[in-house]
Amino acid sequence: MVKRSTAVFSITDVESFKRSLRAWAVQAFPVALCLDSNHAGTMAAQSEVAASALPYWRQPRWECLLAAGAADAICAESGSAFSQLRHFHDYHDDWRFGFLGYDLKNETECLHSRHPDGIALPDLYFFRPEVVIGIRAGDVSALEGYRVEIHALASSPASVFREVQRCAPTDAPAQSVSLRPRMSRRYYSEAVAALREHIAAGDVYEVNFCQEFYAEEARMNPLAVFERLNTRARAPFSAFLRWHDRYLLCASPERFLAKRGQRLFSQPIKGTRRRLADPKADAQLREALRHSEKDRAENAMIVDLVRNDLARHCLPGSVVVEELFGLYTFPTVHQMISTVAGELTPGEHPVAALRDAFPMGSMTGAPKIRAMELIEQYERTRRGLYSGAVGYCSPEGDFDFNVVIRSLLYRADTGYISAQVGSAIVFDSKPEEEYEECLIKLEALQKSLLS
User: What are the start-end ranges of the H helices in 252-347?
Assistant: First the structure.
């Protein structure tokens, strides 16, 4: 296998460089994925502890990581996708980037997906990039600035660095697009009522119920819209994906699953409140989330599900809840986030652990299989990449994947735009409150589409 040429460079204006980096990748390559942590370590430190005391799972390895061009790739539909990914993972002792669509559930369980899908991405796609560019997190000083690492298969890292520096960030104006709901508010309320009846009957404890807002024959500059969304949300698991004429614009605050050495950890989110302009009222709303019995119950149920998922491939007794009901504040929302971790059993394949935790419990409900059956019954759109994951595997064997939420999906050839949002339905759920939570999550997405 051809080895990569590697070089390290220094920059001072990291935000400008990241915008140039994304513009360069989109202009030069039909396949590119940029992952942006938006200074997550600094943001997390604002919650309760100093940056120097942050636990390992609150310290991102990279401030930004970009993969451009596909030197080799796999594209698979549900059926044998995870076995193909395992082979691809074992064959390439190199960087691998890609995505997992929600409908891989049909491979992991005896399920189906029959709803329409306006985006039509493959269920699984991973590629070995021609170029990988990483900006180290927390590596800034007054003298040297941020470290930029460039790993290239064929190009000179120095020439790549110069090309990126010359590439002007996109500021192109975008056509204003208004999204409309796929399901009526009346249907949504009726579906929530029906799900509460399933919960009362003991079919399920919790269901993550989602709805689509969409536009057709729309035209937009996906990178310009992403830059607006990313500036507004500053989410720690943001991602911009170009896959030919399909695009993902993702402002996710949630990690699905990561591996560092032999340690696996997941950070499910349950519990959301809107940010308020008045500092006092905003702080009161944050504290209300902290003490909400409903949100804590939802979070605890998913934590138990994640513990069971990780225990399938972790050493007995090693799975622990490292943080329960953590409160995190982002520019647009407050979130309740827990952290579950465990030690991967020696000899267990990491792709098997990834497969058996997918799809993530925060986007299904519990018990997982019955929740997914009810999702198919009551939702009206195939989720596709929404509720899936994007991320990377490093040459050392580590990986990190987000949860694809707070996202816009765009298909340029048809002009179809999709934004799906949802909430956890439990017995105490009130339809009007759950609908309002959907609108809170939609707000930043819709505003990013208005020029």
Answer: 279-290, 293-311
Torsion over CA of 177, 182, 187 and 190, rounded to 10 degrees? Answer: -100
DSSP E strands in 137-225: the ranges are 146-152, 180-181, 206-215
10-residue stretch averages of pLDDT, the chain, 451 residues long: 88 94 96 95 50 64 96 97 97 96 97 96 98 81 74 95 90 80 98 98 97 96 95 96 98 97 96 94 96 95 96 97 94 94 97 97 96 98 98 96 98 98 96 96 95 70
The whole-model pTM stands at: 0.95
CA-CA distance, 223 to 21, in Å (whole number)?
Answer: 11
Q: Where are the domains of the chain?
A: 5-448
The catalytic residue positions are 254, 270
Nearest 5°: the CA angle 420, 426, 430 is 80
CA 237, CA 403: separation in Å to the nearest integer?
A: 8
- Structurally, at CATH architecture level, domain 5-448 sits in 4-Layer Sandwich (3.60)
Q: Which two three-digit tokens encode residue 422?
A: 């949802």
Phi, psi of 81 (to 5 degrees): -65, -45
C-alpha to C-alpha distance for 208 and 347, rounded to whole angstroms: 34
Please list, in sequence order, all residues whose beta carbon lies within 8 angstroms of the beta carbon of residue 52, skipping any fewer than 6 positions away. none
Q: 199 Cβ partners below 8 Å, 6+ apart?
A: 205, 206, 207, 425, 426, 427
